[in-house]
Design the sequence.
């Protein structure tokens, strides 16, 4: 599904992380390049941005991330060799990633947290709302999430973040949102955000998953955001301030009443708000987690037309006979 929105054309993908959970595989290879079936994880993420109508992609990279640039660039030697062999199928597979989107890269330098990575995008993004996609979150291509978020942002203004219900015991791994309802089932208004709370203190079991559509006012806030959890500049903290600035968040400790209409686009001087959440009920894999990474591969392989039938048959007999 392709969504066109003249207001949003840019996607930012932070990809500077070290990938320590996948060592030694990530010693010399960026974690984003690990294959999910036969495509690097990061290509699914870029494809998702493109199918939501965002064809300008900025990757925030760091040292040792050159393979990312190479992957989304032409490879003339390989293309030449494949066309000499007349292997049109593989040639198309090779060209797919370089034809996908207009790619840009900027290096983060000091890894000072997700908020800092997003701030590195400021000169490229300028004054338009933009999307952020985290590479560790793989959203099943059949369950479009970003396109829905772009549509909600176009209607309600401000910023939109993706939320998903998780088991309360898992909430400490995520940003967590307190929300109130709007007139739409899958859209909520954000009242409070806490980065990786202790389960006992979590305001809900709604986790932020790595998709955001942000108002550019976030940049000014990020510049002033002090390091938070883990000593890092947290995007979650900055989005909380965005909601507070609009009067839709609950300023911490004051118990102040909410006084904005959840369904109205902002009026008056631009304050970057409101902040809404889209609750995602589709399939998501955390490819930064080894178990979930394996599940993503098995699931997507089972559903592939070319590999699926044989692989499913093998898997069935493996599970029944060998486990
Ligand atoms: C980041 C965000 C967190 C969010 C998570 C989603 O954390 O800081 O709020 O819930 O991504 O994947 P990270 O997983 O990078 O530590």
Sequence:
């Amino acid at each position: 599904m392709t969504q066109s929105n003249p207001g949003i054309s840019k996607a930012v993908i932070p990809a500077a992380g070290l990938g320590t959970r996948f060592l030694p595989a990530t010693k010399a290879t960026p974690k984003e390049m690990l294959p999910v079936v036969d495509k690097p994880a990061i290509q699914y993420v870029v494809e998702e941005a493109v199918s939501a109508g965002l064809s300008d992609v900025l990757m925030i990279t760091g040292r040792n991330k050159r393979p990312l640039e190479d992957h989304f660039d032409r490879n003339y030697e390989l293309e030449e060799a494949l066309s000499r062999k007349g292997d049109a199928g593989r040639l198309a597979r090779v060209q797919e990633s370089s034809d996908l989107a207009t790619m840009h890269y900027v290096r983060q330098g000091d890894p000072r947290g997700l908020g800092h990575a997003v701030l590195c995008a400021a000169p490229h993004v300028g004054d338009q709302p933009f999307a952020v996609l985290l590479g560790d979150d793989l959203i099943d291509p059949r369950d479009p999430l970003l396109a829905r978020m772009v549509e909600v942002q176009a209607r309600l203004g401000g910023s939109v973040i993706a939320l998903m219900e998780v088991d309360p015991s898992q909430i400490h791994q995520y940003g967590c949102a307190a929300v109130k309802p709007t007139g739409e089932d899958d859209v909520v208004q954000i009242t409070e955000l806490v980065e990786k709370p202790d389960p006992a203190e979590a305001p809900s079991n709604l986790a932020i998953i790595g998709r955001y559509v942000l108002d550019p006012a976030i940049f000014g806030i990020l510049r002033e955001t002090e390091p938070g959890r883990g000593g890092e500049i947290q995007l979650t903290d900055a989005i909380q301030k965005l909601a507070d600035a609009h009067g839709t968040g609950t300023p911490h400790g004051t118990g102040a009443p909410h006084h904005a209409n959840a369904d109205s686009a902002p009026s008056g001087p631009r304050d970057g708000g409101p902040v809404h959440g889209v609750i995602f009920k589709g399939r998501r894999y955390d490819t930064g987690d080894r178990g979930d990474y394996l599940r993503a591969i098995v699931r997507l392989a089972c559903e592939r037309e070319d590999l699926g039938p044989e692989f499913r048959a093998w898997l069935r007999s493996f599970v029944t006979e060998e486990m």
Observations:
- The two ends are 40 Å apart (CA to CA).
- The chain is about 35% helix and 20% strand.
- Residues 114, 134, 136-137, 174-175, 195, 207-210, 235-236 surround 1-O-phosphono-alpha-D-glucopyranose (CB under 6 Å).
- Residues 1-5, 252-269 have pLDDT under 50 and may be disordered.
